[in-house]
């Protein structure tokens, strides 16, 4: 056993219990994380439970700046608690599990799209300094490692330190994110990008980021999140 495995033992990304160094997830936790499955909204990827519907209620009512989106898990139970630790309790190692599961489900979809670069939704520099890392960037790098697609972290910036979105309703979220992102010059002339984040709720964050990316000249923006709520 490596000395680092003793000092920093591997933990199950769902229950946070210590697992063997070669382990990925507790046997007891298999099945606790609900994967997103069809039928899903054709725009944002929320599970809608009705194969006759094309879009969830949110996407029926509003226009998005991103072209389409997918998510790995339904945001509930063990996944909800796992993402809280990933985001706020320094469980950076969870990113490997999320990235692996994302590629198991969506590597073919990503390949078909012909993505030029993966772009994580950025944190404001103050929040990143406080947290020590950007969870979306860790997730993006795991996907990049498995797909061979470059991860671009110097193109999109968060210029306003916005209030946490979870505290706000839909209209407040949009207002909160107005002019929150800025773009560096698109020197490499990317055409299609995959924008990644941890949680998709109403889509306000990825919409604001996607709008900014398209202003820079990027033609198509697709979204992949670790988790998403249910649609109606």
TrEMBL record:
Organism of derivation: Roseburia amylophila
CDD domains the UniProt entry points to: PRTases_typeI
InterPro entries: ComF/GntX_DNA_util-trans, DZR_2, PRTase-like, PRTase_dom
Record Pfam families: DZR_2
Domain of life: Bacteria
Taxonomic lineage from the root: Bacteria, Bacillati, Bacillota, Clostridia, Lachnospirales
Residues in the signal sequence: none
Record domain Double zinc ribbon: where: 3-59
Assigned protein family: Belongs to the ComF/GntX family.
Gene3D superfamilies: 3.40.50.2020
Protein name listed in UniProt: ComF family protein
């Amino acid at each position: 056993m490596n000395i680092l495995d003793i000092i920093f033992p591997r933990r199950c990304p769902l229950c946070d219990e210590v697992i063997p160094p070669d382990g990925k997830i507790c046997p007891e936790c298999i099945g606790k994380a609900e994967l997103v499955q069809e039928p899903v909204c054709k725009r944002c990827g929320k599970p809608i439970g009705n194969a006759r519907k094309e879009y969830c209620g949110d996407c029926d009512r509003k226009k998005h700046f991103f072209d389409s989106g997918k998510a790995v898990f339904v945001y509930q139970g063990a996944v909800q608690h796992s993402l809280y630790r990933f985001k706020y309790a320094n469980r950076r190692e969870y990113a490997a599990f999320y990235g692996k599961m994302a590629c198991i489900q969506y590597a073919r979809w990503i390949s078909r799209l012909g993505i030029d670069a993966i772009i994580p939704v950025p944190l404001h520099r103050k929040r990143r300094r406080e947290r020590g890392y950007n969870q979306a960037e860790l997730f993006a790098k795991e996907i990049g490692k498995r797909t061979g697609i470059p991860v671009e972290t110097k193109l999109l910036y968060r210029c306003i330190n916005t209030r946490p979105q979870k505290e706000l309703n839909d209209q407040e979220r949009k207002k909160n994110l107005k002019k929150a992102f800025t773009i560096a010059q698109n020197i490499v002339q990317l055409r299609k990008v995959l924008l990644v984040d941890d949680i998709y709720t109403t889509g306000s964050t990825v919409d604001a980021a996607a709008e900014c990316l398209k202003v820079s000249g990027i033609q198509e923006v697709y979204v992949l999140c670790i988790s998403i709520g249910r649609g109606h």
